[in-house]
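Let us work through a complete example step by step.
Step 1: write down the sequence.
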Amino acid sequence: MADTKVFLLDGGSLVLDGFHVYWNRGPGGEIRFPVYSILIEHAEGRFLIDTGYDYDHVMKVLAFEKPIQTPEQTIPGALKLLGLEPKDIGVVVNSHFHFDHCGGNKYFPHAKKICHAKEVAQACNPEPFEVLGYSDLSFSAEAAEARGKTDQLLPGTTAANSRFEGIDGDVELAKGVHLIYTPGHAIGNYSLLVEFGGRKPILFTIDAAYTEQSLKTLNQASFHIDPVAGVASMRKLKALAEKHGAELMYSHDMENFKTYKTGIQFYG
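Step 2: predict the structure and record it as C-alpha cells.
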C-alpha cells in the first residue's frame, strides 16, 4: 500500500445536455465532460478500472455526444505514455458496462476481468431506456451474441477470453483498494476507494455522482435504472468520504478534472 500509485488515463471528452447531467434540474444546454480510466500500480499487480469509450462506436451510434479523442487518449495511447502496453495489465475491472466505461476492453483478452455479478446479464438484456448506454458490446462475446452485435467484436474475441468474474457488495480488490457497491446509475455500478501509505485516501465516485454538484445536491444523472438506489448510493459515498477523510474525485466533472493529475503524473 505504501508503494501504491494511481494514474488517471485521460480518455477524451463527450457532450450531454444539462438536463441529462442533472436529471430534472438542469440548467439545460451543452455540457462537455471528461472521460477517464484509473490505473493502479500496486504491490499485487496492475489494476485498470474502466477503459473509456471507442471513438468510432460513439460516432456511429451516439454522434450527438460529440466525442473529442486524440490517439493519446485511447487506452493503448494513454498506456503508451506510461511506457506500457495492454499486455502489461493483469486485471481489468469495469465499474459498469455503459459505452464510455468499456470501449477499450477489447484490447485486454489476456487479462482477468471483474464486474458486478449482474452487469453482463444486464448488457445482454437491458431495459428499453438503457439500450444506448449498453450499446458498445465489444467487451463481451456473450453480450454481443445475445444482442446480435457480433460485428462489434475484434477478431479472436471469444466467450472464453472475454469472460468476467462476478462480484457483489463491497470487495477489497487488493490491500487498500476497495470496490464500493453503489447501484442506481447501473444495476451493478461500482465506485472505488484507494488507500495510500503517505497521503489521504481517494474516493472515486465513478458514475454514482457525475460531478461535485451532483453529490452535494444528491442530483443524479438521467441515465439510471433505479433513482432511489442512486440517491442511497450517493449518501453512502458521502458517509464513506467523511469516515475515511478521503479526497473525492468525480467521473464527469470538467472543472475538477482540469485540476487532476493525468498522463505520467500520479497520486501516491
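Step 3: interpret the result. The mean pLDDT is 97.
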